[in-house]
Specification:
The complex is a heterodimer of chains A (about 40) and B (about 525). With about 40 residues, chain A is mainly α. Chain A has one helix at about 5-39. Chain A has one helix and no strands. The longest helix of chain A has about 35 residues, at about 5-40. Chain B has about 525 residues and is mostly helical. Helices cover about 75% and strands about 0% of the residues of chain B. Chain B has helices at about 10-20, 25, 30-35, 45-70, 75-85, 90-120, 130-145, 155-170, 175-200, 215-225, 235-250, 255-260, 270-285, 290-300, 300-310, 315-325, 330-365, 370-390, 395-435, 445-465, 470, 480-510. The N and C termini of chain B lie close together (about 10 Å). The chains are: A mainly alpha (about 40), B mainly alpha (about 525).
Amino acid sequence: MNGLRPEGIVFLAFAYGVIISLFVFCFVRVFKKNRELSE
Amino acid sequence: MSNRERWATRIGLILAAAGNAVGLGNFLRFPVQAAQNGGGAFMIPYFIAFLLLGIPLMWVEWAIGRYGGKYGHGHLPGMFDVIWRNPIAKYIGVLGIFVSSIIMIYYCYIESWTLAFSFFSITKTYFGMTDFESMTSFLKSYQGTQKGYFSSILLAYIFLLITLGFNFYILKRGISKGIELLAKIGMPLLIILAVALAIRVVTIGTPDPVNFPERNVENGFAFIWNPNFEALANAKIWLAAAGQIFFTLSVGMGTLEAYASYLREKDDIALNALSTASTNEFVEVILGGSIAIPVAVAFFGIPATLEIAKGGAFNLGFVSMPLIFQKLPFGEFFGCIWFFLLFIAGITSSVAMVQPLIAFLEEQFKISHNKATTYVFIGTFLSAHLVVFFLKFGFLDELDYWAGTFFLVLIGFLEVIIFAWIWGIDKGWEEITRGADIKVPVLFKYVIKYITPLYILIILVYWGITDAIPTLLMENIPSEQLPYRWGARAFMAIVFALLCYLVHKAWKLNKPRYEL
């Protein structure tokens, strides 16, 4: 095997991108709602 | 309405639910599944299953749990009884206590191995076992299935007692002071340790550039991520991806419902469930996918890693990884981190597994939390002996196949049918969206009603066609294991019958009256 192929990089970037976006979206919303409630 | 204990903070609840989902499978099962099932192409069915199976089931379970909690139920028999006013509903719900309790019986033993190996790493106990054969022998002698480094099973038994004791202590403290506190400390610690290990793995590069230039971390990532599109034509890949989503999110166990039952009526569940799922995916795909397989390829090469993957998750975690730690500078330190993070992943899941049964005893028989926890742990401790002493005869494997695999899918199917078709998708949808802090796309209403049950049904039918008969008849099982495996089935049948009897007695003693 000669390292990550371009399509492998696409899959990796896609998976990481989707998961990190979802993770950040969720926790930003959670903390935002928490702050709203505490105010 | 009932006056029940509540989660102290929202972030505590999300971390506890994520801790329930994040388990050994995130670090061991996922990379093996991805590597064996088409590499990067596996992520296509994986994400589709996450979207059509995982997220809808998370919302269904959180909704059932919060609704049941409103009527004082932290267990599936009570929850099903509330949403489906049929005498049989509570007995179907028994599966939700049964499965988690059976899994706990063997999971706590595996969890204790991680604690033991963390100790063996820092004390360099296994250092010197430098090939697969001697390391396998070390593991087997620890488990008592083979003579070798350890002369008896005593040490394994002591670590089991410590693990059970720790679980017992956490659960005795209750929801907010026990489970929530553990999650608030354990989950960030787990992520920090996993990130530290992932960074160490990524920076390994090529350990032996002169003799084995192809053995490097980049090829490890390539092994997982380079797609084999031909694999997508194979139905088994799609089923493997669906199975992985099922198990990684801990749906179909009755534990998420138990956790959600401690929410208030108008608390959000849509965002909480999605946050839980996203945390689990972050740990599984990004952290879990960056440790064990890439480092195995860097040290052993791809053909050997394929063999390791075929040998299963335990082979990867308890044999290959210790061999690698021996080759790393400060390997004892990284080994300790690796096994301790597995231990944290394990304990945040195991405390969730016994919660439904504790809640059932507390709520239906009106016994104190301390007493209920004590009874459950005495039962778990005694039952665990069967796993400890009959390990080499496949007792654990038999429990895991049925309780840890088949019944999860079956419960998932039953609960989505009860939720969307018997209770009604309109009521169900109202429950999911009540108090929601995000706008849930209405498309999911139809996904939950049609696609999710159909998806699970296809999995069950496929199992029925390809695996049911040989599995039921134990066609490929060595003959010396047969009595023990039948014993495991008899044991499960007895536990299930006992739980049905307890449900029957509980409803007779204290028939719930619902204000609907």
